[in-house]
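Continuing the series of single-chain predictions for the mutant panel. This is the parent chain; the variants come on the following pages.
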Amino acid sequence: MRLLDWIRGRRRVPTDENKEETMKKYLIVGLGNIGAEYAGTRHNIGFMVADRLVESCGGQFASCRYGDMAKIKVKNCELMVLKPSTYMNLSGVAVRYWMNKEKLPLENLLVIVDDLALPFGAIRMRSGGSDAGHNGLKNIASELGTQGYARLRFGIGSDFPRGGQIDYVLGRFPADEAAHLSEREDVAADAIKAYALSGLSFAMTHYNNK
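Parent structure:
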């Protein structure tokens, strides 16, 4: 038995346990509000990109603690894609719970969020930064105790009159933007895969101006 064990060790026979250890795990969080009245609105683009990412990998969502989650594989990476059910201003509760449960380091968290400061469809990945008044990001920073987590900002533009911000972000994309929404969601999904496989710097370099 000792000789057999030695031979197996020399050959490094893979086991299911070994495979789990080499699988990199990430938490990808799409921000949005639950409910039919919010479906397809600008403020829910985080949910929409999360849906596209999971669909592109043949996955599906299931109900879980604090939201809906899909677990998908991208080569040697497992992406836990979460759509919190806590509403936007309590998103951090869901994020903190799953980060703690899965014992994930902060660098393995990516949040997908809408951004008024970017033109429609523009994508910007960042390693951190301010919440820029976004209630979801504000709550995540409060729950985690830091703003130093990666995020993918998806531009929704800012074509609204003074005092019209709430109606704008809770409104739906007009026909001319909706016609290009799928292709921009695809780019965002590819950027997230690149982040998991090659790191944030690589994803920023290759997708921030795409």
